[in-house]
Amino acid sequence: MMTTMRTADLTLHDWAVAEWLGAGSADLATEDLVGRVVLAGAFQMLCPGCVSQTIPQLTRVAATFPRDRVAVVGLHSVFEHHDAMTPHALRAFLHEYAVGFPVAVDAPAPDGGPVPQTMQRFSFRGTPTLLLFDATGRLRRQVFGHLADLQLGAEIARLEGESGSTSLEVGAPSLQEPGCDESGCRR
Amino acid sequence: MMTTMRTADLTLHDWAVAEWLGAGSADLATEDLVGRVVLAGAFQMLCPGCVSQTIPQLTRVAATFPRDRVAVVGLHSVFEHHDAMTPHALRAFLHEYAVGFPVAVDAPAPDGGPVPQTMQRFSFRGTPTLLLFDATGRLRRQVFGHLADLQLGAEIARLEGESGSTSLEVGAPSLQEPGCDESGCRR
Amino acid sequence: MMTTMRTADLTLHDWAVAEWLGAGSADLATEDLVGRVVLAGAFQMLCPGCVSQTIPQLTRVAATFPRDRVAVVGLHSVFEHHDAMTPHALRAFLHEYAVGFPVAVDAPAPDGGPVPQTMQRFSFRGTPTLLLFDATGRLRRQVFGHLADLQLGAEIARLEGESGSTSLEVGAPSLQEPGCDESGCRR
Amino acid sequence: MMTTMRTADLTLHDWAVAEWLGAGSADLATEDLVGRVVLAGAFQMLCPGCVSQTIPQLTRVAATFPRDRVAVVGLHSVFEHHDAMTPHALRAFLHEYAVGFPVAVDAPAPDGGPVPQTMQRFSFRGTPTLLLFDATGRLRRQVFGHLADLQLGAEIARLEGESGSTSLEVGAPSLQEPGCDESGCRR
Predict the structure, then answer these.
(1) Phi and psi (nearest 5°) for C70?
(2) Quick one: pLDDT at residue A179?
(3) In this predicted structure, what is the pLDDT of residue A8?
(4) Phi-psi region of A20 (alpha: psi -120 to 50; beta: other; left: phi over 0)
(5) Tens digit of pLDDT for each residue in D45-65?
(6) Among partner residues B96, B98, B180, which is closest to D96 by beta-carbon distance?
(7) Is the pLDDT of residue D171 over 80?
(8) Would you give the distance in Å from CA A120 to the centre of its chain?
(9) Which one of B180, B183, B185 makes the best mutation probe of the D interface by having the most chain D beta carbons within 10 Å?
């Protein structure tokens, strides 16, 4: 079920990250994200709904909002089939899927249990889980499952609005010839 | 091409409406929309991109944002095949497609020309055209073609933010059994 | 419900056609279709499922099978909102949707009733209805609703097989660069 | 690029299989497939196009054609990132994606090279590759990339036709209430 957690006290600083992988991960630390709205998608590389829906949605968000105002990151929170979803395998996955944002590896439980540390602290019910942090680093929204683009776009914009003005750009394919096509009808 | 018009001086009061049809149209006047953010989709009932994309998107917006804060309406701006897209035919279309929001019929040109009055005043380049008005009725955005849900959700939220706080609700299907399915993987 | 009719005695010669419209309709008579497998899609121009699914599927079939072996046609069988779905309006629809196959207008009932003649003779339960005729003109399959592409492709091929050998051509976009993309991974 | 290979002499007996995994794989040997039309999809578990398109298509084929006439199998032909796509990891993948057909693991090259044996013998250009064998086990079609459902359904039916009559069943959701919905319009 989609759930909103009691998120009052959790922040980006509560993340436990073993390492950062993928595009833009060099020298990245979790603290570097503070100052921007942060959309994080917790996933497992062998979770079908994560692969077919969450990762493409994170990619769309990264393409829609300016990077200096909204940060998009993945969080690899593996709680099953650990030996099939190692950081090494994740690296191959990120390469094959051409994932364009950095991904944090959730730190393994110190007691050797299956649920990694960030997943435990934030009480994820499974993957995918979306997390929205405001520009101060405070967790404002946590959802197990999926959030429609309209809703997600609105929620990001609201958090952006709290920290100052926004300037979204529009880009889209041209419609030039008179007549109708898939896109529309021109005069 | 997607275009942002010079929209400084246009408002909802510049609409020329012959009649309102469809769900929620009884006793509706354009002025009644002022006080809310307004998303209007100008379309033609035989425009393929309008039918396959714009009307479903308007329906999603109406289901996502609270009706007392964001109004969604259609505008039937016919500039070709007028005798196949009469208000009478539009009524059948709205019924068959179960369109759930009111639709304004753009007033025909007084000189008998093909382009209706609102389309002329707002310089639509064709259909679909999306129009966003802020809660004071001022046109803030006009786009020929399509706007992605993420972008549209963000723009609506920004206009909402200008006129006070928002309270979006989340609703979504349940994920209950342990294991993976299309939606995700549960502990 | 999807239904298979008792089709033993019905043939293409039982169609009652008021006129043929659209691409390839000049001088076309129903009898001209005999000698080929015929896929006909009965639809109404304001039937949402017909527009979003059946017409695109007919277009795909026309692009997949050689025209001299498999004929694809539409049949406009209007049983409601007659004054919004006239042959004149249908002509505008076929133009706006760029329909690439000929469409027969089902002949109105002689007694002025709402259900046209072919629809009555073949006992359509509604629209869309798919009809498959073998190369002798005999009705072999009638389905109310939709048939998946895999199933439809198989059924057309079986009827083709009855009347001699087939030679399907394959065409598809190239995958050329090494590495992975949406389509696959190359060596 | 989609290619048709020179397939005259290759048969199912040319497969080199290290082991069979997944649903229906117990005691399965490649020879057991002979006597039925065989659709095989060669894939890698981290190949995006294989996961998003080929595996769902194989699942649809398995659901459309009777199992005693058409066999559907996967072939895991790994030529890159071998340590992330081991048989052990594949087992987790097949479980998480609920793959409902057996999958052969292509036998590693004896010289330790990256390209497995079946992939070499059949000269795959990459993954996905679709292979169609007739009921005698002879390779009749090999395609690198994707084949549309209409085309694939037709090709399977033609091979079925060579080995005797077919009896496809139709199953589909009901349309029961009068009026229109996504599927169609009922009388």
Answers:
(1) -130, 120
(2) 79
(3) 56
(4) beta
(5) 999 999 999 999 999 999 999
(6) B180
(7) no
(8) 18
(9) B180
Encoded amino acid at A143, one letter: V
Tokens encoding C86: 């006239």
B166's enclosing H/E stretch is none
Confirm if A169 and B154 have CB atoms less than 8 A apart.
no
Average pLDDT over residues A45-67: 98
The CA distances from residue C15 to A52, B86, B136, C108, in Å, are: 46, 31, 59, 12
> Residue B174: its pLDDT value, please?
42
pLDDT of residue D176: 52
Task: Verify whether the Cβ–Cβ distance D96 to A51 is below 8 Å.
Answer: no
Judged by a CB distance cut-off of 8 A, whether residue D167 touches chain C is: no
Question: Alpha-carbon distance B115 to B120, whole Å?
Answer: 6
Better pLDDT: A31 or C163: A31
C-alpha span between A89 and A119 (Å, rounded): 20
Contact B39, B67 (CB under 8 A): no
Name, in order, each residue with C-beta under 8 angstroms of B72's C-beta and a sequence gap of 6 or more.
Answer: B38, B39, B40, B41, B58, B61, B62, B65, B101
- Within 8 A of B175 by CB-CB distance, chain A residues are 1, 126, 144-145
Rounded to an integer, what distance in angstroms lies between the CA atom of residue C93 and that of residue C80? 17
Q: C39 is written with which tokens? A: 């896929």
* D89 reaches A (C-beta below 8 A): yes
Backbone phi, psi, residue D36, to 5°: -125, 155
| Phi and psi at residue D2, to the nearest 5° | -70, 130
Over residues C78-85, the mean pLDDT reads 97
Residue C187 — very low, low, confident or very high, per pLDDT cuts 50/70/90?
confident
Q: How far apart are CA B74 and CA B42, in angstroms?
A: 6
Write the CA distances from C184 to A47, B144, D1, D65, D144, integer angstroms. Answer: 20, 35, 10, 25, 8
Handedness of CA C63, C31, C128, C132 (dihedral sign): negative
The model's pLDDT over D129-157, given as tens digits with 9 standing for 90+, comes to 999 999 999 999 999 999 999 999 999 99
Q: Are A35 and A135 in contact (CB under 8 A)?
A: yes
**Least confident among B38-52, C167-181, D71-85:** C167-181
Furthest-apart CA atoms within chain C: distance in Å: 68
Look at D172 and D143; give whichever has higher pLDDT.
Answer: D143
Q: Is D22 on the interface with C (CB under 8 A)?
A: no
ipTM comes to: 0.88
Q: How many CA atoms lie within 13 A of D172 on its CB side?
A: 18
The terminus-to-terminus CA distance of chain A in angstroms comes to 47
Sheet containing strand A179-180, edge to edge, reads: A179-180, A185-186, B126-127
Determine how many CB atoms are found less than 10 A away from the CB of residue B59. 17
The whole-number pLDDT of residue C29 equals 97
For residues D72 and D33, give the distance between their C-alpha atoms in angstroms, rounded to a whole number.
9
Phi/psi of residue B6, each to 5°? -75, 100
The pTM of the full predicted model, rounded to 2 decimals, is: 0.90
- Cβ density class D142-153: b for 16+ within 10 Å, e for less: bbbbbbbbbbbb
Examine the pLDDT at B60 and tell me if it is beyond 50: yes
D29 to chain B, any CB pair closer than 8 A? The answer is no
